Structures are given as C-alpha cells and as structure tokens.
C-alpha cells in the first residue's frame, strides 16, 4: 500500500504527459500513456478505499480540546457530511475552521488578497491534548487567497496537481501529534516560519505549536484539523472526535458543530 501511495500520482502525471505529447496516433507511446493513466486511477481508488473507516465496530469519538482560542466558524464539517473531505489522507472526519468577519468572497475582483487581510492569519494553533510531536513541516509559503471565482477555479486545478505529489503539498505547513492510545492529530495550513515544536518534543494540552496560515491547498487562512489512527497520513484512517464548545446561542455542546456554526472553546477535554 505504501508503494501505491507513492506512485499513483507520478504515474498518472506521466501518463497524461505521454498522451498529450504523442503525435503518432495509437501506438506504443499512446498505449503506455493510457496504461499509466489507468494504473494511477486504480491505485488512487485502492489507496482511498484502504483509508475508509470500517463500517462496523468503529471506535467512539475521541474527546479533545479545541486547538484555537476565540470564535471560529465550522466549514466542511463531519457533522454535516461524512466523509467531510474524502477518505484519502485520513480526512474522513476532518474539519476546517475559519475566523469571521473576513473579506467577502467576490465574483471577479479582487482576484486574490494577501492572507494578512484575514483575521485567522497568525492566530495561535494549540495542542488539543498532551502529546508527543511526530512530524512537522514549516517551509511552504503562504500564498494569496483563492476566494474569487477565478481564484476558486485555479484552486481546483492547483489542488489536483498538488494531489499528484506527496501529502505535504496539500497540507502545507503542518504538525502531526501523537495523543496516545493510537490517536494522532493533524493541524494543517500553518503559517510559514511559525511552527514552534520539533519532532520528538513533549507538549502539554493548550500549548502553542504554530500559527494559522494559508499554506498548501487552502483558499483562505484557516485551520484544517483531523484525528487519525496512525502517524502516517497516507496510510492511517480518520477518527471521529468531539469538542466541548459554546455554539452561536452560548449553549455548551459536546461534539462537532455543523457547517456555518460559530463555536468558542469551553475547555480541554483530554490530557
């Protein structure tokens, strides 16, 4: 499975190039290109299905602390749809959190904005529980936003290209934490140069690990958060989680908010 996760993207890209540059009709190069395209698609399907959580006997939701302070709004929430993103890269129950108010999306102009125009940019990202740092990435740039129609179209193309490479191209700057008992957390799209921890570090719940940014496959500064059952995002399966938070009406809840609900943390649930 590890082999398939590494080669499906390059195989698909090589097949597409072979078909596009072929000028001799149906022949060896065309067959090679189509073969690589099919292999890439099948390998991607197999690896994605391998990361689908079991339909029966799935563990209960893991209670963790909200990795942010202040008020945030849920997007792409597993409380609204499962998978919230995709089964690939253990994102079955992942969630995106944005800060509002922020510049409104537009149809055409401005095509893009600097990430500093958004209140989420630079906000502290916190450890959701006592943990050991498994892996970090801190070299990806914080690109311009993609919230206009042309920007979103570009994001779709960009995301497809990123998906052909390693997971870090989608996650951008990120931190992977081992929370114990086989539970691992991912905090992604961090601001370049903001990661404060290194692999092997022991950290406490609520400790700052980075800042919110706009790196990787991101339309605007936000936090992508997920739990998974292993340290390798390309092989693990997503896990359900729950937060203790206050909703829009100030009512305390245990769980995950659906899309559009604004939440503020109540406390750290797991130590």
From TrEMBL:
<protein>
    <recommendedName>
        <fullName>M23ase beta-sheet core domain-containing protein</fullName>
    </recommendedName>
</protein>
<dbReference type="GO" id="GO:0004222">
    <property type="term" value="F:metalloendopeptidase activity"/>
</dbReference>
<dbReference type="InterPro" id="IPR011055">
    <property type="entry name" value="Dup_hybrid_motif"/>
</dbReference>
<dbReference type="Pfam" id="PF01551">
    <property type="entry name" value="Peptidase_M23"/>
</dbReference>
<feature type="domain" description="M23ase beta-sheet core">
    <location>
        <begin position="158"/>
        <end position="228"/>
    </location>
</feature>
<feature type="transmembrane region" description="Helical">
    <location>
        <begin position="28"/>
        <end position="46"/>
    </location>
</feature>
<keyword id="KW-0812">Transmembrane</keyword>
<dbReference type="InterPro" id="IPR016047">
    <property type="entry name" value="M23ase_b-sheet_dom"/>
</dbReference>
<keyword id="KW-1133">Transmembrane helix</keyword>
<dbReference type="InterPro" id="IPR050570">
    <property type="entry name" value="Cell_wall_metabolism_enzyme"/>
</dbReference>
<feature type="region of interest" description="Disordered">
    <location>
        <begin position="250"/>
        <end position="271"/>
    </location>
</feature>
<keyword id="KW-0472">Membrane</keyword>
């Amino acid at each position: 499975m590890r082999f398939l996760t590494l080669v499906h993207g390059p195989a698909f890209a090589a097949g597409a190039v072979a078909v596009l540059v072929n000028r001799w009709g149906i022949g060896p190069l065309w067959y090679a290109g189509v073969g690589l395209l099919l292999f890439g698609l099948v390998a991607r399907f197999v690896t994605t299905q391998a990361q689908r959580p079991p339909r029966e006997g799935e563990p209960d939701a893991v209670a963790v602390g909200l990795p942010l302070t202040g008020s945030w709004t849920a997007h792409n929430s597993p409380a609204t749809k499962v998978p919230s993103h995709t089964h690939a890269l253990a994102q079955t129950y992942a969630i995106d959190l944005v800060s509002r108010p922020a510049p409104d999306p537009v149809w055409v102009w401005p095509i893009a904005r600097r990430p500093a125009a958004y209140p989420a940019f630079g906000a502290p990202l916190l450890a959701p529980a006592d943990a050991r740092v498994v892996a970090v990435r801190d070299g990806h740039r914080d690109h311009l936003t993609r919230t206009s129609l042309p920007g979103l179209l570009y994001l779709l193309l960009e995301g497809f290209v990123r998906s052909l490479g390693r997971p870090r191209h989608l996650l951008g700057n990120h931190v992977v934490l081992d929370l114990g008992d086989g539970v691992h957390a991912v905090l992604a799209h961090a601001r370049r140069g903001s990661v404060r921890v290194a692999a092997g570090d022991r950290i406490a719940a609520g400790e700052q690990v980075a800042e919110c940014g706009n790196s990787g496959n991101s339309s605007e500064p936000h936090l992508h958060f997920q739990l998974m059952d292993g340290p390798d995002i390309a092989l693990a399966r997503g896990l359900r989680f729950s937060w203790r938070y206050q909703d829009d009406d100030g009512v305390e809840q245990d769980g995950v908010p659906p899309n559009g609900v604004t939440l503020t943390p109540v406390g750290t649930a797991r130590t």
